[in-house]
What does this fold into?
Amino acid sequence: GESVGLHLPTLSVQEGDNSIINCAYSNSASDYFIWYKQESGKGPQFIIDIRSNMDKRQGQRVTVLLNKTVKHLSLQIAATQPGDSAVYFCAEPINDYKLSFGAGTTVTVRA
Amino acid sequence: DVKVTQSSRYLVKRTGEKVFLECVQDMDHENMFWYRQDPGLGLRLIYFSYDVKMKEKGDIPEGYSVSREKKERFSLILESASTNQTSMYLCASSTPALQGSGNTIYFGEGSWLTVV
It folds into this structure.
């Protein structure tokens, strides 16, 4: 069945460095992907999304890349800051009312 | 900005109590959702609603019910709380038709429920 998964459960990054968080998906027909950030004790927060007709989309300090050939997307965070410490997970709609979520990558920023 | 507000952030209830979790969204979204989130299990859909007075079971509806009397408000009800319902509960909302439309789900801050 369709699923969205993340490659690594944890990522430790030095403050100021760039972070790359990866996600693999299995449904080649998927046409929309979302990245969420969840800080400790809080609800998931929408970060950025991308449609399948795009390869790249940029936001403020974040970039999402989509490689449909290998069914892989990534979230890049530029100049990682302490406030970026959180769990990041990707998601995709599997029908009109349901998202499939990846398990999440915990990003820890070292000072 | 989308605002999904959950009225209670932290609750402690006794086994067998009836529990109400309230959620309000201010974006006139048609869809509203209740999820629970547990370590190692991720986000699991309990119930969702696509219109006033309409409800549909998600993946884990057992032990829960919902109410949607107004478009902006969606309540989760635990008729008789049990310890295995200790969890973080997340309300969310969205415009219709997630698939193929680029519409996403926006979450509230979560309600931490402990059943003792």
The mean pLDDT of chain A is 90. Residues 8 and 105 of chain A are 6 Å apart (CA to CA). Chain A is about 0% helix and 60% strand.
